[in-house]
């Protein structure tokens, strides 16, 4: 009773009738037999979409929860205190999400994708409830970290299950649905957080996850059935987990503290940089020797896979870096409220949404995808450069409309990056592959916000110092200073105009840095190869690519034509 599973070719090859999924749960010849998970039997397209809908609900929770708390933070601080710990409400969530993502992905490969996805939802919901019940800032930060541990498994778990259920050649529309949720979550998260905080309580920004998560659990538990496999005897690579966690922790602290709490050349920041480099180098060495590595080094033998990870990192940095500081311009310079500023970013969302839906349909139709990351890199570069036109005299309508070009570029790259990743990985590595691409996008976003934020802060301070003097600039930008959108109208007119000019200059610095990252992505995209998309879900062995003109059925790995064919690495 699985979703959209077919075994006609296996029947023709004499492989049908084996109980327990692809090979009866035995004979895989390798640890981690859940790599052979496959749909067990056929179901209607309606059942397929219902099952995928349940998975997408879980993914949506992970996406929106990184954003929904933002508009509630001032109210949270007013009730719980702890202004100096404010950033850690967000940082704790992102840190544990990044650390947990590849671990959940590997756990799904080893112990079963459906079960690990449902466990991640349970952990996420527990963290959500406890966050809503928090009585002080320390409790909230701890419970947000717990919530992030669960969130790390929602995205990668859903992607890996969908990767088993639907072959890449037929998954363009599925990937479009996944990609379309990100702009919806990006805009809807802050708006929903503001609405719940204004009309109910900030605690409902966390409680709202519970009913949605329960619906996801019911659908996934009742409508998705994967083939039964033998119980895995493999173990998670704990040394790799510890080293990866340490490296990401050091990078996150470096990104959070660099240029803010400590100078970039301070012993603390240099020490964190050294720790991250040593931990990453040691992690690579350990993974090469591990029987079941967290991130299998063999994945990076594929040039397309490696390039997709680079593009994912860069798109995360550009997307979160730019969109984190555009609201500063809209609120400080345009004088908009947070809710109105969020609404004016709708063109960016619609640009992402339209391109992702259209690209997915085209890829499903013709099986070709190489042009889209190239096109996306060029459009994104142009879109970021166009935003440099934003100034103090720019109308609100024009400022909003200019964001659509950058949104289109993000949509092109994000859609194709995920598809290239899943097509470049073997079925046994689907969870690790989706975990890796999600991890790199998360880390890229964190570092992008931090590095571009340092540019913004530096340009802001220097702009104020040039216009008002060093002393006034220090008073405005110091912790507890007067530089907030609400306080801006109460300042003298010359000071107010100086602040607006400095914020505009800071945004231009962010956009210039983002343009450099976008150009790097554009250059990297040219090296992607046009590898044919798989036309089948092949549970037990390496996928056999077929050209778009050869819509063959699923070839069972034990069929005669595959009996003596060596596995070939993907491009």
SSE ordering: HHHHHHHHHHHHHHHHHHHHH
- Determine the strand fraction and express it as a percent band: under 5%
Rg is 24 Å
Can you tell me the overall shape? globular
Mean pLDDT figure: 73
- The first-to-last residue Cα distance is 34 Å
Q: Number of helical segments?
A: 21
How many beta-strand runs?
0
Please identify the structural class as seen in this structure.
mainly alpha
| CATH architecture designation of the largest domain | Up-down Bundle
| CATH topology tier name of the largest domain | Growth Hormone, Chain: A
What's the story with the biggest beta sheet? none
CATH H-level superfamily of the largest domain: MFS general substrate transporter like domains
Low-confidence stretches: 1-35, 536-569
Indicate the CATH class of the largest domain.
Mainly Alpha
Helix content: 55-70%
Describe this structure in words.
The chain has 571 residues and is mostly helical. It has 3 domains: 1-9 and 30-228, MFS general substrate transporter like domains (Growth Hormone, Chain: A, Up-down Bundle), CATH 1.20.1250; 238-290; 302-571, Growth Hormone, Chain: A (Up-down Bundle). It is built from 21 helices and no strands. Helix 5 packs antiparallel against helix 9, helix 7 (172-199) crosses helix 17 and helix 10 runs antiparallel to helix 11.
């Amino acid at each position: 009773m699985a979703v959209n599973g077919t075994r006609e070719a296996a029947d023709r090859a004499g492989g049908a009738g084996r109980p327990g999924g692809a090979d009866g749960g035995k004979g895989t010849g390798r640890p981690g037999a859940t790599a052979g998970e496959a749909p067990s039997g056929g179901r209607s397209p309606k059942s397929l979409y219902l099952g995928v809908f349940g998975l997408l609900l879980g993914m949506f929770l992970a996406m929106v929860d990184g954003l929904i708390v933002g508009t509630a933070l001032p109210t949270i601080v007013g009730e719980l205190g702890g202004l100096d710990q404010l950033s850690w409400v967000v940082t704790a969530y992102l840190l544990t999400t990044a650390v947990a993502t590849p671990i959940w992905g590997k756990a799904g490969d080893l112990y079963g994708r459906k079960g690990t996805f449902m466990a991640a939802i349970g952990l996420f919901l527990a963290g959500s409830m406890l966050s809503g019940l928090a009585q002080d800032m320390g409790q909230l930060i701890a419970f947000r970290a717990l919530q992030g541990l669960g969130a790390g498994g929602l995205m990668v778990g859903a992607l890996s299950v969908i990767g088993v259920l639907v072959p890449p050649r037929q998954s363009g529309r599925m990937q479009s649905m996944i990609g379309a949720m990100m702009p919806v979550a990006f805009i809807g998260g802050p708006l929903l957080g503001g609405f719940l905080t204004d009309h109910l309580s900030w605690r409902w920004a966390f409680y709202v996850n519970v009913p949605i998560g329960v619906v996801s659990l019911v659908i996934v538990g009742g409508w998705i059935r994967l083939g039964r496999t033998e119980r895995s005897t493999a173990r998670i690579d704990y040394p790799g987990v510890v080293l990866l966690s340490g490296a990401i922790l050091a990078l996150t602290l470096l990104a959070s503290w660099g240029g803010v709490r400590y100078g970039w050349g301070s012993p603390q920041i240099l020490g964190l940089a050294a720790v991250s480099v040593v931990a990453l180098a040691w992690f690579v060495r350990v993974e090469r020797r591990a029987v079941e590595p967290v991130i299998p080094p063999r994945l990076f033998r594929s040039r397309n896979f490696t390039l997709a990870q680079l593009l994912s990192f860069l798109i995360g940095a550009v997307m979160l870096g730019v969109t984190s500081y555009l609201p500063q311009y809209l609120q400080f310079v345009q004088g908009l409220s947070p809710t109105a500023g969020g609404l004016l970013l709708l063109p960016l969302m619609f640009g992402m949404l339209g391109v992702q839906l259209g690209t997915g349909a085209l890829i499903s139709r013709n099986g070709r995808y190489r042009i889209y990351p190239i096109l996306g890199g060029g459009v994104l570069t142009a879109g970021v450069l166009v935003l440099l036109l934003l100034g103090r005299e720019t109308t609100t309508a024009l400022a909003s409309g200019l964001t659509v070009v950058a949104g289109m570029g993000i949509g092109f790259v994000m859609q194709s990056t995920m598809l290239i990743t899943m097509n470049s990985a073997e079925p046994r590595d689907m969870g690790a592959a989706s975990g890796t691409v999600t991890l790199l996008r998360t880390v890229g976003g964190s570092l992008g916000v931090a590095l571009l934020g340092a540019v913004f802060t530096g340009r802001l301070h220097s702009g104020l110092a040039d216009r008002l003097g060093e002393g006034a600039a220090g008073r405005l930008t110091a912790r507890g200073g007067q530089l907030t959108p609400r306080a801006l109208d109460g300042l003298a007119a010359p000071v107010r105009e100086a602040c607006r000019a400095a914020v505009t200059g800071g945004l231009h610095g962010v956009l210039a840095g983002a343009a450099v990252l976008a150009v790097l992505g554009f250059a990297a995209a040219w090296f992607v190869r046009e590898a044919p998309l798989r036309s089948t879900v092949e549970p037990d062995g390496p996928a056999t690519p077929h050209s778009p003109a050869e819509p063959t059925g699923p070839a069972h790995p034990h069929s005669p034509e595959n009996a003596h064919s060596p596995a070939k690495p993907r491009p």
